[in-house]
Amino acid sequence: MRIGYYPGCSLQGSGREYSESLFAVAEKCGIELEEITDWNCCGASAAHSLNHDLSVALPARTLALAEKQGLEQILVPCAACFGRLATAQQELVSSEPMRSKISNYLEMPVQGSARILTVFEFLQEHIFPVADQFIVNKLNHKTACYYGCLLSRPKDLTRLERPEDPMEMDAVMEKAGATPIDWAFKTECCGAGLSVSRTDIVAKLSAKIVEDAVSRGAESIVVACPMCQMNLDLRRKEINKQMDQGSDIPVLFVTQALGLSMGISAEKLGLNRHFVSTGKVVSCVGRKEV
Amino acid sequence: MARIGVFICHCGENISATVDVEKVARLASKLSGVAFSVDYKYMCSDPGQTLIVDAIRKHKLTGIVVGACSPRMHEGTFRKAAEKAGINPYFCEMANIREHCSWVHPKSDETTQKALDIVRTMVEKVKNDTALFPIKVPVTKTALVIGGGIAGIQAALDIANAGHQVILVEKTPSIGGHMSQLSETFPTLDCSQCILTPRMVEVAQHPNITLHTFAEVENVTGFIGNFDVNIRLKAKSVDFSKCTGCGSCWQKCPSKKIPDEFNAGMSFRTAIYTPFPQAVPNKPVIDRANCTWFTKDGKCGVCAKICPMGAIDYTIQDEIINVKVGAIVTATGFDIKHSDFFPEYGYGKHPDIIDGLQFERLASASGPTGGEIRRPSDGKVPETVVFLACAGSRDKAKGIEYCSKICCMYTAKHAMLYKHKNHHGKAYVFYMDIRSAGKSYDEFVRRAIEEDDVNYIRGRVSKIYEKNGKLMVVGVDTLLNAKPVTIEADLVVLATAVVANEDAESVAQKLHISYDKHKFFAEAHPKLKPVETNTAGITLAGACQSAKDIPETVAQASAAAAKTIILFSGSELTREPVVATVNRSAAPVYTTCTGCFLCQEVCPYQAIEREEIRDRAGNLLMNAARVNAGLCQGCGTCVAMCRNKSIDLQGFSNQQMLSEVMGLLNEPFE
Amino acid sequence: MENKHTQNQELSLKQQVKKTVGVDVQTCYQCGKCTAGCPLNEEMDLMPNQILRMLQAEYPGYENEILTSTSIWLCLACDTCYSRCPQEVKLPQIMDFLRQESIRRNLVNPKSKNILRFHRAFLAEVERNGKLNELGLTIDYKLHSLNLFQDLQNAPSMLFKGKLGLIPHRVQNPSEIKKLFKKING
Amino acid sequence: MAETFEPKIVAFVCNWCTYAGADLAGTSRTKYATNVRIIRFPCTGRIDFMLLIKAFQNGADGIIVSGCHPNDCHYTSGNFHARRRWMVFKSLLDFMGFPTDRITFSWVSAAEGKKWADLVNETTESVRALGPFTDYKNLDFTQFNQIDHEGIAEQSR
Q: How far is CA D146 from the centre of its chain?
């Protein structure tokens, strides 16, 4: 079964360790990902803020290319990209006029037929069945699974069972031998698109998240969105200013954590690319008790 | 040879203003079979009716057509007149030349012509009328009341006090229903059990009431006045004839960790149990799903050893009893949503986010905390309590668009009770609107705000989460420029939506009554038949029909009782003879019915029965359909369905309808 | 708008929302749950439910007040409001529309200009290469927003950690994307 | 100019909804075309569609069949059976080339006097546009009684 892959721009830049770790894990489990040839940017929040048609057309181009490539399912690890692609797909499928309008813009047909996988669906359906034989270390520590907005909402797109208290990432971390904590900010917003233009806001929102995770004894925060990761990691200086006492809790991608439990090297998983040292988590590999 | 009389009414000016009534009368007299025709100013007046009676007698009329108003208006009046004159009342037909003609058309020849057409049509119909006689159905003067809550109790007592037999069936081991769980009741704050328990005892002791607790209606057949009901008496495992209710069995029962339904899951009960101290009957039953004797076959048996009367009997089986009743009162009550219904409030994972019924138990003297309001998690007395109105109600996204009606009042009551017991505590109520229409209801809410200093915040709560032992209630005050407010609470009470019981649908299907999309039972008419169902003889009482408070429930229960008592007022009831009949004739034909029973499939009332036609020797000759006149409501769907016209509808027979069509058109319109 | 009287003049903002976004703001019954849950409610000058109420009320001057608010630019489209709204009002989509309308009517609040600049810089970058290059974006944005020193402490380390690529990623044929933009922007 | 053709419309209605609706139109004095003649059934479920054919055979130009709205049937399901049977019957008529556009199927409740008036007016206009229904009149029923011996002989050869 071919699995298409849409990295999106962040995974080639600020979030590259996400794709590095994802590929490392996939490779370990002998699963191939087929990148969509000549994919383009999804338009992110800029497009849907400024121009609705553009916010559909940009993802539509990628979807059209995927169809040309004959891909029936596409993995979109980046939460933001997933949101845009899934939303665009929904519009294409539900409105014939929109569909013809867009394929008109693109000068190529587009159906929006391919199934778009979240990183959780990918892990559950393709990695979980084979994972156990590759998991060599218990990633023995308390972790806070942080889902953010775009992997939880809207629920008809993200298909989470408990959109207000998701468990999908927790399941992955349990596989990795960690102990996910029950906390209150799983699906709160980190400030996302305002990262550059209103860093002050991002700092405030992210601070609440880090604070709650730390106050409940989490030793790491695990994410599945490059924007969440960047805000919680790159913005830590600003975040710490917002907190009574700062925190150096590392922020990992779920695939990095899983990779560690599979004995993949920290370098290969891009754990050196973080601003807040990930050493703590690396060190609790195979640790006895939590 | 038919001799029809035609009587055209002016209705003052109402008809004559636009229709040339004289002309209609004149031309009508020329119609074949018409022996007499006349017009008059007010046919429905006494002189008008006398005119008709005399004409029938004088001209030996076999049938009459009254050209006047809608049959829905005066058909009865003129049928009586015909009867008075000595002809069968069903030989009287109304030609509706007012509502359908004179009032909707201008004065013109067309209008007059139309009036004539209508009259002619009915003349053709009356020629094919047959003598019909009201159907008499015997009545079994025993009522079945389903549900032993306050609705069922009230209905049962009213009917019983009118001197009729009542069979009261209750699903749980005791009557009392939700009302017995309540602490105090709005707007008077009198203790719920204090006013309820006397009624419960009265039911138990009433000579006319047979009480079956721990029992459920299995199935219902028959029809108004003559229902045939099977009731399942679930195995109590206790011989009530021996049991004295001493209670030593449940005191000794080792399985003590079963969530207590009566205390809304906030305490535990034993496997052999009486739901609560004032239960009626006050004798225990064994909950076999949780009793080790049944789960770990034959283990334990302590209760049997301990019982001084030897009343415990593990071998008792479910028993089905059959009863015949004339009327049924449905009072199966309601349920509420629980806190696990709310994702944004934590899917019920916080023990200190509770629902209204749980708070009632906390506030009740007979409750798990003896009436002290303590939070479930650690038994601490909460310093701050937040109440959320409209939890789930008026929430399209959650599939409950309707208002649950009682929450505004009981939330005010809850806040009040809390403040009365904890003067220094803080009580907040998040609300959208305050719906307190009812006798001294709004005054009650004002009291909560003004005298008990409850802080009402207009806005909905978006999220509740736990932090350092506090519940963070994230809301908004829309009366302060939509100010976001987060309240740190120790206890949160959700006024969760009132919903239908989960078995409501199956109950409705057993009774053949209809229900709305929220599974509340449907009344026959929203205004004029609020307690009847569209199945004759079955009435509704209480919250099974829609969310209701106690006064409303009691009122409706008494109304249902009144309807039942009216039904029982005569030894038999009379019904319009507009029913279907399957033709019958002498041997060797017997009937043209071929026994395909398509009619049976389409009949909404199960009125079509299967009759075996046998010869004298008793050999089966054929199966044919037979209509149960008691059940048939006269819709005639079976008639349209019948392949060879073997079934027909009295009053709207094939011959009558055909003659109408012909009469309408066989002469020129204009 | 079938109504003769309004046929000729422009649609009210409420009517536009109904027509282009397909959301009827009349369904909002002002429970305020959207505001309560909004992560940015502390930053906003108009609360989400107030914007809906103002759309409903259509008092004179409200349209400008809405379109010059900073709230419409702060909205992160995190969907918290919609996911909890009892009346299922698609507020994020309304916000998207209001932003675009605010630009069209040239009513963007000066305080929000930076957010708009960032969005524009973002799309400019996409228009150039079909893909986003954070370095290009940051430079472009800083030139427009003129706060040159923000993030300066981060940039080098980002480069060092290989998070900012110096060689921009491109689609095979960037002109294709430029064409797409041209077509859509008309 | 030639006088306008006045179509004959026969309405088959149920007693509880549409008949009452027509009564309401009366009590509220809502004016409508005089072309309609009402035949009252207890329920649309009672209507034998062969009667429609009879009506056409006897000179009707158009027909209205109207009862309670879905789920409002006084007899809970009669109108559904009517609708279901109408579907089948209509496809048969269409197959036979019978002009089913002369038959209007509608729901009018006891509260919809105005809707009844509109229904009558609209139907009257649409049928007037269709012109008189002559197909039946043109049939020579006498022919049915004569047996075509030659034809049969032909066949048997």
A: 31
